[in-house]
Known about the structure:
The chain has one helix and 15 strands; from the N terminus they run ββββββββββαβββββ. By secondary structure, it is mainly β. It has two domains: 1-89, Thrombin, subunit H, CATH 2.40.10; 91-188, no CATH class.
Amino acid sequence: MDADNVEIDPIHNEVFVVQRSADAILVFPREANGDVAPIRIIQGPKTGLRYPRRLTVDPANNLLAVISEQGIVLFNRTDNGDVAPRCVISGPKTGIPNLAKASNSKAMLNPDAQKIIFAVRKPAQTKQEVERSGGGMTLIWKYGDCGDVPPLYRFEEGAPGFDLIPEAKEIIIDAKGGLMVFSLPEAF
């Protein structure tokens, strides 16, 4: 299991887990031990989840973002059962490539700035594209964006290995065999 398939919510003492084979998100008590049943399961036709692979949670703003084959699927953090998402960011204007063919992607939520930051390694690229951009891109939306909406910011650098440095207003990306640091105050 990839570490990005698990997210800890330290405020509410919960652990969120992607169960790709069942198209489900499982939520467990953080201090659980042994064979413990989940306290919530997001699963079913209304969820629209198809092959979820990564997730991230913003406990302060009650938001759960799941990267699934159809795009970035947003739920309330406390959702349970066969529930419709509050929103799906997907479509040609978003710039999100076909996630069924994109092997690596990651999203992070920035609670203070209320931004959704998404990075992906693009599928089926030429050698020149990979050499120029490390084969990826980073896209940023604001909370509340929904549907086929273009990102606020897009740059042709990115990889699913990234993190935020809020105090410096920087994004650090693992690309081209090294680390790249970008000053991006608009994401913060």
